[in-house]
Automatic annotation (TrEMBL):
It comes from Flagellimonas olearia. Residues 8-98 form the CBM20 domain. This is Glycoside hydrolase. Coiled coil: none annotated. Pfam families: CBM_48 (PF02922).
Length: 98
Protein backbone atom coordinates (compact mmCIF):
# COMPACT_ATOMS: atom_id res chain seq x y z
CA UNK A 1 0.00 0.00 0.00
CA UNK A 2 1.20 3.50 -0.69
CA UNK A 3 0.15 7.07 -0.04
CA UNK A 4 1.44 9.92 -2.21
CA UNK A 5 0.92 13.56 -1.21
CA UNK A 6 1.12 16.48 -3.61
CA UNK A 7 0.65 19.92 -2.08
CA UNK A 8 -0.82 22.64 -4.30
CA UNK A 9 0.79 26.07 -4.23
CA UNK A 10 -2.35 27.83 -5.45
CA UNK A 11 -4.67 26.74 -2.61
CA UNK A 12 -4.53 25.00 0.80
CA UNK A 13 -5.21 21.55 -0.66
CA UNK A 14 -3.19 18.35 -0.82
CA UNK A 15 -3.85 15.84 -3.59
CA UNK A 16 -3.58 12.46 -1.86
CA UNK A 17 -3.25 9.34 -3.99
CA UNK A 18 -4.03 6.02 -2.35
CA UNK A 19 -2.62 2.85 -3.99
CA UNK A 20 -3.66 -0.58 -2.76
CA UNK A 21 -2.22 -3.77 -4.29
CA UNK A 22 -5.15 -6.20 -4.16
CA UNK A 23 -5.08 -8.22 -7.36
CA UNK A 24 -7.65 -10.77 -6.14
CA UNK A 25 -10.08 -8.12 -4.80
CA UNK A 26 -13.27 -7.10 -6.54
CA UNK A 27 -13.77 -3.73 -4.82
CA UNK A 28 -11.61 -1.38 -2.73
CA UNK A 29 -12.69 1.91 -1.15
CA UNK A 30 -11.04 4.36 1.22
CA UNK A 31 -13.16 5.79 4.03
CA UNK A 32 -12.33 8.24 6.79
CA UNK A 33 -12.94 11.55 8.47
CA UNK A 34 -12.61 13.33 5.12
CA UNK A 35 -15.72 11.60 3.65
CA UNK A 36 -17.78 10.84 6.79
CA UNK A 37 -16.73 7.17 6.57
CA UNK A 38 -18.92 6.77 3.49
CA UNK A 39 -17.70 4.35 0.82
CA UNK A 40 -19.95 5.89 -1.83
CA UNK A 41 -17.82 8.05 -4.11
CA UNK A 42 -14.58 6.81 -2.57
CA UNK A 43 -14.15 3.58 -4.52
CA UNK A 44 -10.66 3.14 -5.94
CA UNK A 45 -10.20 2.22 -9.59
CA UNK A 46 -8.61 -1.14 -10.39
CA UNK A 47 -5.70 -0.88 -12.83
CA UNK A 48 -4.52 -3.65 -15.16
CA UNK A 49 -1.61 -4.45 -12.83
CA UNK A 50 -4.02 -5.29 -9.99
CA UNK A 51 -3.43 -2.09 -8.00
CA UNK A 52 -6.45 -0.06 -6.91
CA UNK A 53 -5.81 3.68 -7.11
CA UNK A 54 -7.64 6.92 -6.37
CA UNK A 55 -6.82 10.58 -5.75
CA UNK A 56 -8.66 12.89 -3.36
CA UNK A 57 -8.27 16.62 -2.65
CA UNK A 58 -7.97 17.13 1.11
CA UNK A 59 -7.71 20.46 2.98
CA UNK A 60 -4.23 20.92 4.46
CA UNK A 61 -3.21 21.38 8.09
CA UNK A 62 -5.46 18.51 9.18
CA UNK A 63 -5.12 14.94 10.38
CA UNK A 64 -7.61 12.37 9.08
CA UNK A 65 -8.37 8.90 10.42
CA UNK A 66 -8.99 6.44 7.60
CA UNK A 67 -9.17 2.78 6.61
CA UNK A 68 -9.54 0.77 3.43
CA UNK A 69 -12.49 -1.51 2.75
CA UNK A 70 -11.27 -4.43 0.64
CA UNK A 71 -14.18 -6.65 -0.41
CA UNK A 72 -16.05 -5.70 2.76
CA UNK A 73 -13.12 -6.12 5.19
CA UNK A 74 -11.63 -3.08 6.91
CA UNK A 75 -7.83 -2.78 6.91
CA UNK A 76 -5.22 -0.15 7.73
CA UNK A 77 -2.40 1.14 5.56
CA UNK A 78 0.97 0.15 7.06
CA UNK A 79 2.50 3.29 5.54
CA UNK A 80 0.15 5.70 7.33
CA UNK A 81 1.71 8.67 9.12
CA UNK A 82 0.62 7.19 12.45
CA UNK A 83 -2.13 5.11 14.08
CA UNK A 84 -4.76 6.18 16.60
CA UNK A 85 -7.16 4.24 18.79
CA UNK A 86 -10.82 4.86 17.95
CA UNK A 87 -13.30 4.01 20.73
CA UNK A 88 -16.28 4.01 18.35
CA UNK A 89 -14.66 1.41 16.06
CA UNK A 90 -12.95 -0.44 18.91
CA UNK A 91 -9.70 -0.62 16.95
CA UNK A 92 -6.80 1.45 15.69
CA UNK A 93 -7.29 3.54 12.58
CA UNK A 94 -4.59 4.75 10.23
CA UNK A 95 -3.98 8.51 10.36
CA UNK A 96 -3.04 10.74 7.43
CA UNK A 97 -1.49 14.13 8.19
CA UNK A 98 -1.59 16.78 5.47
Amino acid sequence: MAIKKQYLKSKPVCKVTFSVPAEEAEKVAVVGDFNNWNAKGSTLKKLKNGIFKGTFDLPTENAYEFRYIIDGAYTNDEEADRFQWNDYAGTENAVLEV
